[in-house]
Amino acid sequence: MKKLVVIGAGMASGRMLEHLFDADPAAYEVTLFNAEPRGNYNRLMLSPVLSGEKTYEEIVTHDEAWYADHKVTCRFGEKVTGIDRDRKVVIGEKGEVAYDKLVIATGSNPFIIPLPGHDLEGVIAYRDLEDTNRMIDLGAQPDAKAVVIGGGLLGLEAAAGLRLRGVDVTVVHIMGHLMERQLDEAAGYLLRKSLTEKGIKVMCKANSKEILGEDGKVRALLLDDGTELPCDLLVMAVGIRPSTALASEAGLAVGKGVHVDDQMVTSDADILSLGECVEHNGAIFGLVAPLYDQAKVLANTLLGKPDTFVNKEVSTKLKVTGCDLFSAGDFAEGETREDIVFRDPARGVYKRLVLEGNRIVGAVMYGDTADGAWFYSHIKDATDVAEMRDTLIFGPAFQGGGTADPLAAVAALPDDAEICGCNGVCKGTIVDAIKGGAGDLPSLKAQTKASGSCGTCTGLVEQLLELTLGDSYAAPAAQPICACCDLTHEDVRRLIKSKELKSQPAVWQELGWKTPNGCHVCRPAVNFYLLADWPLEYQDDLQSRFVNERKHANIQKDGTFSVMPRMWGGITTPDELRAIADAADKFKVPTVKVTGGQRIDLLGVKGEDLPAIWADLNRAGMVSGHAYSKGLRTVKTCVGTDHCRFGTQDSTGLGIKLEKLLWGSWTPHKVKLGVSGCPRNCAEATCKDVGIVCVDSGYQVGVAGAAGMDVKETERLADATTEEEAIELTTAFIQLYRENAKYLDRPYKWVAKVGLDWVKERVVDDLDSRRALVERFEISQSVYRKDPWADHVENERKRYAPLADLTLEAAE
Amino acid sequence: MDGATDMTTRPFIEVSEVWVPEGDRLVLSKGTYGDLAEFASVSERESFARGEGLPGKAWDEGRPVVLKEFDGSYFKRTEAAKAAGLTAAVAIPVFAGTQLKAVLVTLCSDDDSRMGAIEVWSGEGNMLTLEDGYYGAAKQFEFVSQHVHFQRGQGLPGGVWGANTPLLFRDLGAGYKFVRSESAGRAGLTWGLGLPLPSPTGRPYVLTLLTATGTPLARRFEIWDARAARVGTANEAVLIDGICAREGSLYDHDTERRIKAFQGPIGQVLGTGLPVVDASAAGQHGYRTLVALPIHSSREVTHVVAWYC
Predict the structure, then answer these.
(1) Confidence band, pLDDT 50/70/90 cuts, at residue A406
(2) Which residues of B touch A41 (CB under 8 A)?
(3) Which of A9, A561, A628, A786 has the greatest number of C-beta atoms within 10 Å?
(4) Could you report the predicted ipTM of this complex, rounded to two decimals?
(5) Which residues make up the binding site for [4Fe-4S] cluster (chain A) (predicted)?
């Protein structure tokens, strides 16, 4: 009988032995080495063992009896120290074994990031039963804490298992969303939500800096932003590397893994290899399906039967109870690719198919994976899906019908979700009133006061009517935000607040967006709503801004930009003027213009010069004038009491104070202010978004003026007796506008919709409300009151570099 | 986990009954009573209005109810229960949305040696605390349980709450470092089944059945997943976990076990949405009684859990 030696008793070699013994039990006399002191167990099921949902005994694939039945000589717990190919022997710690054929199945080694402190006690990988038992032991400690570095399959399974053991777990992931290799951002959002519901803390975009220790033992993980995450155990689950040392020392051809051909033979004809240690046609392997294919091919090769290994598409599943996800193929966006998206916010379902031509090339699903196998087979078979394209997303059972439910987002709201913020009316109250007979908007308003004040929740209330009354309710047509979504701007705003949606993926999923990531219409609006409502939690997304806001300059019709520094209250100095003149000379600015907003505009600056001209102006103490933004533009003033014989108050001083308070804030549309020192109104304050006219008795604060396509005089918000009060009223009004208005509505349009009385109730009459508005504005300004020029000069300079000139190369 | 399971030990649960609504009352649909024929005959003649007796109370309050003392309580069959040696009962209402489908009642007898636990946990905020529980002779474990709480995702009850799915845990006292493992180990508790109990009150409830080797509450557990999101539109269920004192682990990663509606007792639960108690079906696996309980979400049966004793 020929002698077969197998190094490594993992799942791949175990499956290979099963095929071998099934086909010809007498072909080989087998010796099996394993460094672990045990035989083949289902390593994929380590996570249920960790969580307590399985015992080790339940995941053993081959027990002692199986090895005995097949007369396998087991040398478990013994490391192989070398392979002598000339003598055809394997050298173990306890002696040599001769082979006719040798199979190297050494698997992979976990990758340990060489962070300072990675060798501390308590820093482990997650690979085998020993690691699992270390984590299980941690669960026995009261108040145990663990940090898992890595938000991929393995890391999340480790985290979920530790959590079920009672451990306080934080997952630290360097990428923007979890399992980014298998999931897109939307599915990653749902996964994160589900893990958070299990009590697992998840930190994405988190960069580990150092592992801190105490007495040689891990104490905490330090992130590069200074955050310290205390832990008793640190699990690194950032990836695996093929274990090739033995093969390499034996002189076999090794690249990323041990090189094998289609028959699983290495560069030595008597040595074969399979599993996570091999490299086949440049590919290495981490999922089990291709390893089982390799096992079959290798067994046939050993038996002299022809067989060929072909690497196929694989699908992924995560084994965390309650997290149903499926991913297969390629789901990156591309110009030649189209998406079909289905979302059901009520059930937490997201499905996306990526099509190229008439073929499915990728599928990502979360929450409903029943059709995963069906889509997977179409990917593998490259099926032409043109005929069933319209209903494809609904799976095999729905070929022929079915549409997404536009009311799903509202249906998903709990009864205690606040629908009407003004009057504190929740969903349950409204639904009860509808069931009680209030069948239209006016009667609902009368009974519950819902939508009776500012009216921004009208859309939601109408949807509740439709949801509760079904077809018997005929809703007035409302304009949805764009084709991506059935909800109006006002609905989206209200739902972002009531459902506490704090990221774009959360909005897309929970409000049932029909596209993967929104479009050029909805993204800027949603980006603004999120940053206005959650200034501390949400990070402004530059990619969701119009070009002027992305570039922090107004693009001109010839492709150049205008640069306009801020002049606080229209006041400047000789030094500032010199710096502006120098910059205009240095960068050959063709046009220098004094604007209606009392500042100086440098027109015709090249895109690539922007950082440099900003840096020069910054050095002279000037900052961006935000002349391009949906935010505070200027505060126009007259000279006031300092110089004018009619001036009643220090209008210039007040203008400067206001501008210094409000600058940098993002608003639904641009905001312009004016402060006039007397009713002669030289600063034209009475046609501004907020206009203050100084009088002997104090300050007349007017709002909602306009002097553009529409011309409209301001309406009197209130009379203030002190400068502080005028500032407070202005700030509160702007914050109320920020929190409630539709994106791209100027204040005069918004006030026309909600009514000046509604605004006055919150800004003038109710002092607590006014102060709360000012407080929230100040919280937001703690993030946004900064100069974007300085920030871009420092961090984003390369974005302004000109694209390579390819015309020359093309000509050549 | 061998074939020589001791079936002479009296089970922890003596009686299992399914009460179903008929008009405005609950009537007995089926019960397994073992040798307790007299108690069976009293029960067959009984019915409960909403709020009346133990099943009526569970219906009315929309939550599981544990009753550990019959004397002087609202329990209606006190005399017959005492005569049968039954000392405690747990009523588990099965709701599909707001509609009551049935009430499952289990009755236990008490002695100094029977270890095990049937617990009801309820959630508020981010915490689950013990609403009530029946522990037999596991007094120390009962004391500990009354003084712990679980956050979402923690331990068996918190895990069930966090994942909103039934879970089956192994080695509660030994290999598995159960949150209450020390006293669980002393009480000889081995396996634990936890399941979410949807309530029309909206409050989260989790039921746990913890079994000990010597005096098993159950000797076989099964969890079947019937969500359309998992099995598609066919009215079917797949076994996602299970363990048996005779057969060992019931779940095989590579071979899926799937049943159709109305196929066997699990299929019966899936098809009707009602719990099943059955003696003959349990006999196939060598046990006396099978209890299979559906878990509903809105109108859909999402899971079926079964225990055999």
Answers:
(1) low
(2) none
(3) A9
(4) 0.85
(5) 638, 644, 678, 682
Q: Do domains A2-109+242-302 and A123-238 have the same CATH topology?
A: yes
CB A722 within 8 A of CB A706: no
Cβ pair A417, A427 in contact under 8 A: yes
Residue type at A515 in one-letter notation: T
Nearest beta carbon to residue A370 from set B152, B202, B232? B232
Residue A767 pLDDT exceeds 70: yes
Put simply, the answer to whether A198 touches B253 (Cβ < 8 Å) is no
Average pLDDT of the residues of chain A: 90
Q: Which CATH number fits domain A324-398: 3.40.30.10, 3.40.50.10420, 3.30.390.30, 3.40.50.2000?
A: 3.30.390.30
Q: Do B229 and A371 touch (CB under 8 A)?
A: no
Q: Which of A193-207, A442-456, B155-169, B225-239 has the lowest mean pLDDT?
A: A442-456
Number of Cβ within a 10 Å radius of residue A416: 11
Q: Are strands A418-420 and A425-426 parallel, antiparallel or unpaired?
A: antiparallel
Tell whether A644 is in a known binding site.
yes
pTM: 0.78
- The domain A632-786 belongs to what CATH superfamily? Sulfite Reductase Hemoprotein, domain 1 (3.30.413.10)
The whole-angstrom distance between residue B308's C-alpha and the CA centroid of its chain comes to 10
Instruction: Tell me, yes or no, if B277 comes closer than 8 A to chain A by beta carbon.
Output: no
Is the CB of residue B165 less than 8 Å away from at least one CB of chain A?
yes
A140 touches chain B (CB under 8 A): yes
A174-209 residue pLDDT tens: 999 999 988 899 999 999 999 999 999 999 999 999
Chain A CB contacts of B168 below 8 Å: 53
- Predicted confidence band of residue A804 (pLDDT cuts 50, 70, 90): very low
What is the pLDDT confidence band of residue A456, given thresholds at 50, 70 and 90?
low
Determine contact: B97 vs chain A, CB below 8 A. Answer: no
CB atoms within 10 A of CB A579: 19
**CA angle (B264, B268, B272) in 5-degree steps:** 170
